[in-house]
Amino acid sequence: MCREDCLVSSPAGGAPSKPSLITTLRGPKVANMAVFDWVATGIGAFALSKVLKLHAATTFIILVALAIVIHHSMGIPTMLNAYLGLSTRDAVITARQSAV
To answer: Which of 41, 47, 74, 100 has its CA 20 to 30 A from that of 64?
Structure first.
């Protein structure tokens, strides 16, 4: 497993910078997908379901479907899209490494 200091970039060879809040929140993963993303989608679905007068599970499914379509159409590789055959695992790993 990687030590914490290998997960953050070093500006111009200096000391490693602190990871951003979103990087820290998206760190814990299940099935190589960020737990934070799923929890945030669930909370968003619950709140949106109250506004739209839909069941929260229906709203969650709609949000996940939208995320799949939007990420795929914009060429953003995600692990969920890789599991669905719309992207590759290698593309996801490469995108994650270039983002750090």
So the answer is: 100
Separation CA 58–CA 36 (nearest Å): 20
In which band, very low, low, confident or very high, does the pLDDT at 80 lie, cut at 50, 70 and 90?
Answer: very high
Q: Please, which residues bridge with residue 4 across strands? A: none
Q: Which residue has the higher pLDDT, 49 or 6?
A: 49
- Running DSSP on this structure, what letter comes out for residue 85? T
User: Which DSSP symbol is given to 12?
Assistant: G
Which percentage of the chain shows pLDDT scores above 90?
68
Question: Could you write out the DSSP letters of every residue in 18-80?
Answer: PPPHHHHHT--EETTEEHHHHHHHHHHHHHHHHHHT--HHHHHHHHHHHHHHHHHHTT---HH
Q: HSE, CB side, 13 Å, CA atoms: give it for residue 80.
A: 16
**What CA–CA distance (Å, rounded) separates 82 from 89?**
6
